[in-house]
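User: I'm designing a mutation panel for S-acyl fatty acid synthase thioesterase, medium chain and want to avoid disrupting the core. Could you give me a predicted structure to guide residue selection? Please restate the sequence first so the numbering is unambiguous.

Assistant: Good idea. Sequence first, for numbering, then the predicted C-alpha coordinates:
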Amino acid sequence: MDSVLNCLKRRPDAVARLVCFPWAGGGSVHFARWGHVMDSVEVFAVKLPGRESRFREPFFQNMDQIVDEVVAALLPILDEKPFALFGHSFGALTSFAVAERMRKLHNVEPVHMFLSGAFAPFSELRLKSQRRSELSDEDFLQWLTAIGGTPPELLANPEVVRLFLPALKADLRVVESYRCARPESPLFRCSLSCLDGKDDLPHNLQEWKCITSGEFTIRMFDGAHFYLKTPGNEKLLLDYMSRHLETSQLDYL
Protein backbone atom coordinates (compact mmCIF):
# COMPACT_ATOMS: atom_id res chain seq x y z
CA MET A 1 0.00 0.00 0.00
CA ASP A 2 2.77 2.46 0.89
CA SER A 3 4.13 2.32 -2.66
CA VAL A 4 0.76 3.51 -4.01
CA LEU A 5 -0.59 5.70 -1.19
CA ASN A 6 1.47 8.42 0.47
CA CYS A 7 0.42 9.36 4.03
CA LEU A 8 2.77 11.78 5.79
CA LYS A 9 0.72 12.05 9.00
CA ARG A 10 -1.13 9.10 10.49
CA ARG A 11 -4.17 10.10 12.52
CA PRO A 12 -5.78 7.06 14.22
CA ASP A 13 -8.44 9.30 15.77
CA ALA A 14 -9.37 11.06 12.51
CA VAL A 15 -13.08 11.34 11.79
CA ALA A 16 -12.52 10.45 8.13
CA ARG A 17 -9.93 9.73 5.47
CA LEU A 18 -9.36 11.83 2.38
CA VAL A 19 -7.80 10.14 -0.66
CA CYS A 20 -6.30 12.63 -3.14
CA PHE A 21 -5.55 12.09 -6.83
CA PRO A 22 -2.93 14.28 -8.55
CA TRP A 23 -3.26 16.38 -11.67
CA ALA A 24 -1.56 15.17 -14.87
CA GLY A 25 2.17 14.78 -14.37
CA GLY A 26 1.81 15.46 -10.67
CA GLY A 27 3.19 13.63 -7.67
CA SER A 28 1.73 12.83 -4.28
CA VAL A 29 3.58 15.24 -1.99
CA HIS A 30 1.49 18.37 -2.68
CA PHE A 31 -1.63 16.62 -1.38
CA ALA A 32 0.00 14.36 1.20
CA ARG A 33 1.23 17.41 3.11
CA TRP A 34 -2.39 18.40 3.66
CA GLY A 35 -2.32 15.73 6.35
CA HIS A 36 -0.24 18.07 8.53
CA VAL A 37 -2.95 20.76 8.27
CA MET A 38 -6.25 18.88 8.43
CA ASP A 39 -6.36 17.99 12.12
CA SER A 40 -9.49 15.84 11.97
CA VAL A 41 -8.76 14.10 8.66
CA GLU A 42 -6.18 11.48 7.69
CA VAL A 43 -4.90 12.25 4.20
CA PHE A 44 -3.63 9.75 1.63
CA ALA A 45 -2.28 10.84 -1.75
CA VAL A 46 -2.08 8.52 -4.75
CA LYS A 47 1.44 7.97 -6.08
CA LEU A 48 1.50 6.92 -9.73
CA PRO A 49 4.39 5.09 -11.45
CA GLY A 50 7.03 7.02 -13.34
CA ARG A 51 7.60 9.67 -10.65
CA GLU A 52 8.85 10.14 -7.08
CA SER A 53 9.95 6.84 -5.49
CA ARG A 54 8.39 4.99 -8.45
CA PHE A 55 10.36 6.83 -11.12
CA ARG A 56 11.88 3.61 -12.50
CA GLU A 57 8.46 2.07 -13.16
CA PRO A 58 6.83 2.47 -16.59
CA PHE A 59 3.93 4.88 -16.92
CA PHE A 60 0.44 3.46 -17.04
CA GLN A 61 -1.07 3.25 -20.51
CA ASN A 62 -4.78 3.36 -19.71
CA MET A 63 -7.30 4.15 -16.99
CA ASP A 64 -7.96 0.50 -16.11
CA GLN A 65 -4.36 0.11 -14.95
CA ILE A 66 -4.71 3.07 -12.59
CA VAL A 67 -8.05 1.86 -11.28
CA ASP A 68 -6.86 -1.73 -10.73
CA GLU A 69 -3.87 -0.63 -8.68
CA VAL A 70 -5.57 2.08 -6.61
CA VAL A 71 -8.65 0.00 -5.78
CA ALA A 72 -6.44 -2.89 -4.63
CA ALA A 73 -4.52 -0.51 -2.35
CA LEU A 74 -7.62 1.20 -0.95
CA LEU A 75 -10.01 -1.68 -0.27
CA PRO A 76 -8.18 -3.06 2.80
CA ILE A 77 -8.39 0.28 4.63
CA LEU A 78 -11.78 1.66 3.65
CA ASP A 79 -13.97 -0.26 6.08
CA GLU A 80 -12.39 1.36 9.13
CA LYS A 81 -13.93 4.85 8.89
CA PRO A 82 -15.65 7.18 6.42
CA PHE A 83 -13.60 8.21 3.41
CA ALA A 84 -13.81 10.87 0.73
CA LEU A 85 -12.09 11.38 -2.61
CA PHE A 86 -10.50 14.55 -3.97
CA GLY A 87 -9.12 14.92 -7.48
CA HIS A 88 -8.02 17.88 -9.56
CA SER A 89 -8.18 17.93 -13.37
CA PHE A 90 -6.77 14.53 -14.48
CA GLY A 91 -7.18 13.52 -10.82
CA ALA A 92 -10.90 14.29 -10.89
CA LEU A 93 -11.38 11.77 -13.69
CA THR A 94 -9.16 9.11 -12.11
CA SER A 95 -10.92 9.49 -8.76
CA PHE A 96 -14.29 9.15 -10.48
CA ALA A 97 -13.14 6.00 -12.29
CA VAL A 98 -11.90 4.50 -9.01
CA ALA A 99 -15.15 5.37 -7.24
CA GLU A 100 -17.22 3.85 -10.04
CA ARG A 101 -15.26 0.58 -9.84
CA MET A 102 -15.56 0.37 -6.05
CA ARG A 103 -19.30 1.01 -6.17
CA LYS A 104 -20.09 -1.46 -8.96
CA LEU A 105 -17.82 -4.34 -7.93
CA HIS A 106 -17.45 -3.94 -4.17
CA ASN A 107 -20.55 -1.95 -3.12
CA VAL A 108 -18.31 0.63 -1.43
CA GLU A 109 -18.57 4.37 -1.95
CA PRO A 110 -17.19 7.55 -0.40
CA VAL A 111 -19.21 9.81 1.85
CA HIS A 112 -18.18 12.76 -0.31
CA MET A 113 -16.47 13.37 -3.64
CA PHE A 114 -14.60 16.62 -4.29
CA LEU A 115 -14.02 16.94 -8.05
CA SER A 116 -12.01 19.93 -9.21
CA GLY A 117 -11.17 21.60 -12.51
CA ALA A 118 -12.52 19.00 -14.92
CA PHE A 119 -15.26 18.21 -17.39
CA ALA A 120 -17.49 15.25 -16.56
CA PRO A 121 -16.03 12.12 -18.25
CA PHE A 122 -19.00 11.86 -20.61
CA SER A 123 -19.00 15.56 -21.55
CA GLU A 124 -19.15 16.13 -25.31
CA LEU A 125 -16.84 19.11 -24.90
CA ARG A 126 -14.23 16.90 -23.27
CA LEU A 127 -14.54 14.18 -25.90
CA LYS A 128 -14.16 16.71 -28.73
CA SER A 129 -11.33 18.73 -27.18
CA GLN A 130 -7.84 18.82 -28.68
CA ARG A 131 -5.50 15.95 -27.75
CA ARG A 132 -2.78 17.91 -25.94
CA SER A 133 -0.54 14.86 -25.65
CA GLU A 134 -0.06 14.92 -29.43
CA LEU A 135 1.28 18.49 -29.52
CA SER A 136 4.93 19.15 -30.32
CA ASP A 137 7.05 19.93 -27.28
CA GLU A 138 7.16 23.60 -28.27
CA ASP A 139 3.37 23.91 -28.59
CA PHE A 140 2.91 21.82 -25.48
CA LEU A 141 5.09 24.18 -23.43
CA GLN A 142 3.16 27.16 -24.77
CA TRP A 143 -0.07 25.53 -23.59
CA LEU A 144 1.43 24.81 -20.16
CA THR A 145 2.49 28.44 -19.85
CA ALA A 146 -1.02 29.58 -20.78
CA ILE A 147 -2.82 27.51 -18.14
CA GLY A 148 -0.35 28.45 -15.39
CA GLY A 149 0.49 26.39 -12.34
CA THR A 150 4.09 25.65 -13.38
CA PRO A 151 6.73 28.28 -12.53
CA PRO A 152 8.04 29.87 -15.77
CA GLU A 153 11.63 29.41 -14.65
CA LEU A 154 11.08 25.63 -14.56
CA LEU A 155 9.58 25.57 -18.03
CA ALA A 156 12.61 27.52 -19.27
CA ASN A 157 14.99 24.88 -17.88
CA PRO A 158 15.61 22.17 -20.53
CA GLU A 159 16.66 19.58 -17.93
CA VAL A 160 13.51 20.10 -15.87
CA VAL A 161 11.38 19.89 -19.01
CA ARG A 162 13.13 16.67 -20.05
CA LEU A 163 12.24 15.06 -16.71
CA PHE A 164 8.76 16.55 -16.35
CA LEU A 165 7.20 16.24 -19.80
CA PRO A 166 7.10 12.43 -20.15
CA ALA A 167 4.93 11.97 -17.02
CA LEU A 168 2.61 14.78 -18.00
CA LYS A 169 2.13 13.54 -21.55
CA ALA A 170 1.67 9.94 -20.36
CA ASP A 171 -1.13 11.01 -18.00
CA LEU A 172 -2.77 13.08 -20.71
CA ARG A 173 -2.72 10.11 -23.10
CA VAL A 174 -4.53 8.07 -20.44
CA VAL A 175 -7.23 10.63 -19.82
CA GLU A 176 -7.66 11.57 -23.48
CA SER A 177 -8.39 7.94 -24.36
CA TYR A 178 -10.71 7.41 -21.37
CA ARG A 179 -14.37 7.00 -22.28
CA CYS A 180 -17.41 6.78 -20.04
CA ALA A 181 -21.10 6.81 -20.95
CA ARG A 182 -23.47 9.20 -19.23
CA PRO A 183 -25.22 7.13 -16.52
CA GLU A 184 -28.91 6.45 -17.01
CA SER A 185 -29.39 6.61 -13.24
CA PRO A 186 -27.17 7.93 -10.43
CA LEU A 187 -24.10 5.80 -9.71
CA PHE A 188 -23.66 7.06 -6.14
CA ARG A 189 -25.62 8.27 -3.13
CA CYS A 190 -22.85 10.40 -1.66
CA SER A 191 -22.55 14.18 -1.60
CA LEU A 192 -20.64 15.76 -4.47
CA SER A 193 -18.79 19.07 -4.58
CA CYS A 194 -17.54 20.38 -7.92
CA LEU A 195 -14.81 23.00 -7.59
CA ASP A 196 -13.07 25.30 -10.05
CA GLY A 197 -11.24 28.57 -10.57
CA LYS A 198 -13.41 31.46 -11.78
CA ASP A 199 -10.90 32.28 -14.52
CA ASP A 200 -10.37 28.71 -15.69
CA LEU A 201 -11.75 27.34 -18.93
CA PRO A 202 -15.48 26.73 -18.16
CA HIS A 203 -15.97 23.04 -17.42
CA ASN A 204 -19.79 22.95 -17.32
CA LEU A 205 -19.67 21.51 -13.81
CA GLN A 206 -23.44 21.07 -13.75
CA GLU A 207 -22.96 17.98 -15.95
CA TRP A 208 -21.48 16.12 -12.98
CA LYS A 209 -24.79 16.31 -11.09
CA CYS A 210 -26.27 13.19 -12.71
CA ILE A 211 -23.69 10.83 -11.19
CA THR A 212 -25.18 11.00 -7.68
CA SER A 213 -28.53 11.19 -5.93
CA GLY A 214 -26.84 12.96 -3.02
CA GLU A 215 -26.36 16.65 -2.35
CA PHE A 216 -24.66 18.52 -5.21
CA THR A 217 -22.72 21.75 -4.76
CA ILE A 218 -20.61 23.96 -7.01
CA ARG A 219 -17.92 26.09 -5.36
CA MET A 220 -15.88 28.61 -7.34
CA PHE A 221 -12.56 30.11 -6.22
CA ASP A 222 -10.64 33.15 -7.39
CA GLY A 223 -7.98 32.22 -9.94
CA ALA A 224 -7.49 30.01 -12.98
CA HIS A 225 -6.91 26.28 -13.47
CA PHE A 226 -4.44 25.90 -10.61
CA TYR A 227 -6.41 28.08 -8.19
CA LEU A 228 -5.72 25.55 -5.40
CA LYS A 229 -1.98 26.27 -5.44
CA THR A 230 -2.35 29.77 -4.00
CA PRO A 231 -2.10 29.78 -0.17
CA GLY A 232 -5.35 31.67 0.37
CA ASN A 233 -7.38 29.37 -1.83
CA GLU A 234 -5.70 26.29 -0.39
CA LYS A 235 -6.78 27.30 3.11
CA LEU A 236 -10.35 27.95 1.95
CA LEU A 237 -10.41 24.57 0.18
CA LEU A 238 -9.07 22.63 3.17
CA ASP A 239 -11.49 24.35 5.54
CA TYR A 240 -14.34 23.56 3.16
CA MET A 241 -13.44 19.88 2.93
CA SER A 242 -12.79 19.56 6.67
CA ARG A 243 -16.25 20.94 7.50
CA HIS A 244 -17.93 18.46 5.18
CA LEU A 245 -15.96 15.49 6.44
CA GLU A 246 -16.45 16.31 10.12
CA THR A 247 -20.23 16.24 9.63
CA SER A 248 -20.11 13.18 7.36
CA GLN A 249 -19.22 11.01 10.34
CA LEU A 250 -22.78 11.39 11.56
CA ASP A 251 -24.10 9.89 8.32
CA TYR A 252 -21.62 7.00 8.54
CA LEU A 253 -22.58 5.88 12.05
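For picking mutation sites, this is relevant: Residues 5-248 form a domain with the Rossmann fold fold (CATH 3.40.50.1820). The beta strands are 5-6, 16-21, 41-46, 83-88, 112-116, 191-197, 216-221.
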